[in-house]
Give the backbone structure.
Amino acid sequence: MRQVISVALIWGVALSAPEWARAQAGTQPAPSTPQEAQAPAAAQPAPTADAPAGAGVEASRSLFEPTWHEFTFGGRLNSVEGDPARFQRYGDQRDGVLLTGARFAREGPDGAWQFHGSADNVGWRDQKYFADYERAGKLLVSGIWNQIPQFYSVDTRTPYTRSGDALVLPDAVQRAIQNAQGNLNAYVPIAPQFDLTERRDIGQVNFLATPTRDIDLKASFTTQRHRGELPWGASFGFSNDVEVPLPYDSRTNDLNVGAEWANGRNMLRVGYTGSWFDNLDDTLVWDSPLRLDDSTSAPGRGQTALWPSNTAQTVSAAGYTKLAHRTQVTGFVSLGFWSNDEPLLPFTINSALPQLTLPRSSAQADAHVFSTNLNLVSRPADNWSFVARVRRYDYNNQTPHADILDYVAYDTSVSQSTTAGPELYSHSRTTFDADATWTGVRQVALTAGYTHNANGYDFRVFEGTSENVLRLTADAVGSQWVSFRAQYQVADRTGSGLNEDLLAQIGEQPAMRHYDLANRNRNQFTGQVDVTPNEVWTLSASAGLGKDKYDDSGFGLQDSSFRNLAFGVDYQQANGFGGGVGYNYERYAGLQRSRSASPGAEFVDPARDWTADSTERVNYFSIYAAPPRIGRRTEARVSYDYGYAKGSYLQTTVPGGPITPPNQLPGVYNKLQQLHVDVRHRLSTRLAATFSYLYEPFQIYDFAFDPSVVNGIVQPSSLVMGYVYRPYTAHEALFGLRYFW
């Protein structure tokens, strides 16, 4: 059990925790703006303008209502039994004193100008700052600074150390293993434990100037610094898997400038976007754990290229015009130029192999990107409305072909290329949408829609795909107590220009199809209904189901399906008293087919086929309560969330075939519970005491990352870091003083 208690806390001072930065799989970093940060739950409104403090304001304003004149000074205590890294995956939940929830606003005479500023988690790894200044109708300047940490693991260990740009191992240990005087276990005592972490820092400045009533000038600049260490597979082949802490340090700068003219009936906007990505660690060199010296059968070091530095420049124009018969036409067009001219790495750094000549010294990679979007919206009659859209996207690869006849495979041997070099992939997408809506039936809108997708590909199995989609929708409109939507969609996608030779070139089955462009039939239905019998109660329910079938795919994905069901009940009174409960169920399934065969007679033997059938079920339940005030000064909020996801796999082989029936993989699951209790007590018109408590147990099992499987850094033919999925149980308490004026 890991428990850290801070001694720097002041009695009665605590943090009211406007947001909870949780660290579960799928949890996203906390928002940056004050409005987003202060409203993680439906019960919290956006910050309001402050009225003069007084008895009336004190009696009416909820302590859970954020304002623009406040800050919270407090502290946090937590106890984590299990994995502390997963508990605070995207946040900094350590014990200590905190200044957070700071909000400040000023306004000039008669509203001529406004200023807003905020600060959260000041001085911590996940601190956030925001500020804006506005002169009404003339100028708006805003800025954001946001730090987003990512905490992978406290369990990781590695014998690798960094030397310049390389990850190295002790020469003596490498040589002993090379000479059969030791094995991978020799790295265990020299592999210290360390925290595997990274962090992203984001800064943004936005400008909006309005020199005249009809013209806006806009500009924004965003810079992102991303650094730390990532878990990385640096393999020398299937017989020698290696996992290393990849050093990572990059910066991305984005600039947007534009001008917009509008007069009510027409609008025109032109803009420029530039993006510059600079990777300071663009190459990884690492030692082999099995040997020190290069040989023709195995290298002493490996090298791989990482994300290259690159640039993207885009110019764009957009506009709309309003026509007769309640019709509006909107258009957008952009042209982009992407480039990367980083030096090419040699085929190998194994000194025992011949050094092949590179086709050129740098990548010379260029692409032109064209996109356009045209929209027409019209309501020529009271009961009819029409919407039509045309979208086009072209990715045109301008990179010169690299003639590569020979290459080095796995740093051990020279092989002949079957494709004479990498293919220059390009693609295009053209989409046409049309919808017609009729509202002739009272309080019901009926819509029929059609979509045609036409995609083109270079050097894919299909030269192109064509998809036709028909959808029928019914909506309730104008009703004060009930609303609903039901939609049925059927789609058919067909490929053209099939070239099975591209599969044969890489040793793949000719009947193999890639699911993103294979022939596919799709049927989907979704529906939702909300009932509001009065101003207090709201009842909602939704359901959906769908299935994709790939009847022409001999191998690969055969079909996939989904089903979901949800319902909820909410009760809210005008005085803030309320509560709610909700339940969601989701099910996803997929079937894949493959063949275990080497080139030769067995390559075409259907008895060697096998299938993998996967299913995932998710159950989610939530309940919250906002009881009435306790006396005149105390308020409370309670919520409980429960999520349980379980996946199963079934592998089957041909009965009586040559493949031994496999041992079935165990099911995987994760279960997360969160209990929040938040109590706030007004001490005076300017001061409130706050207390928050979180109870969060998390359970998980994954056969690939369970501690019973990855039970050390040495695995059969592998040297890993020991990264695993571990459960935890966390208790967190935040208490403090909230001051507002």
